Amino acid sequence: SMPFVDLPDGPGAIGSRRDLPGALGEFMVLDAKRLLAVPDGLSIEHASLAEPLAVGVRAVRTAGRGGGEGPFLVVGCGPIGLAVIAALRAGGKGPIIASDFSETRRKIAEVLGADVVVDPAQRSPFETFAGLGYEPSPASTFLPAGMEPKRATIFECVGAPGVLQSILAGAPRHSHIVVAGLCFGEDRFQPSIASTNELLLDFVMCYRPEEFELSLRSIADGKVDVSPIVTDVVGLDRTAWAFDALAEGTHAKVVIRATD
To answer: How high is the pLDDT of residue 100?
Structure first.
């Protein structure tokens, strides 16, 4: 589970804020009530995927606020985006569009259940909605009385400045945008675009305890196969290489293990 420290305003998650850095510590003090036993037979590498999968579960559940009927576009296929795809597929939801510059990550997205994969350097992922037969509902002023608009669902799983604005500019009318990517820097977007197209915008953070437990259980039971997400397992001496490989997009999730 995620380690916490006690702060004047409540518990704070280590690593989630600039003033709470934390990684590769030799020892941690953890709350026993937050710990879950790894089921027998489940590898440490796969058990470690319970955390990103839980983020995907939270994002997909949040999408339910807007109806969550699809189609679903996942922008960014790092561990969080791939977890969203896995959670969507486990829930029987689709069609799923996956967008990422990395060929490696696009292939993994396909293996996990994405119906359409897009290289945004070649074409806009928003162009694929029409190919799936999706037509946005008209603006509210033209909706028949009592009719609720259809909503496509878009997951922002990059967390880089400028991505949210690009989604607002490309999203079909009435879309529900769920922001799962964590952008620590400042960002800008144009609210008038969101207003004109009546977009719903939700931000999600991590997961709830029961979602973490559900994720671990789903992996252990084989309901979600996370093995394609782990593209390498390395020792501490290759930590710098792992970060470089992830930045280059040649890997999706590199598990770093200390030697026994």
So the answer is: 97
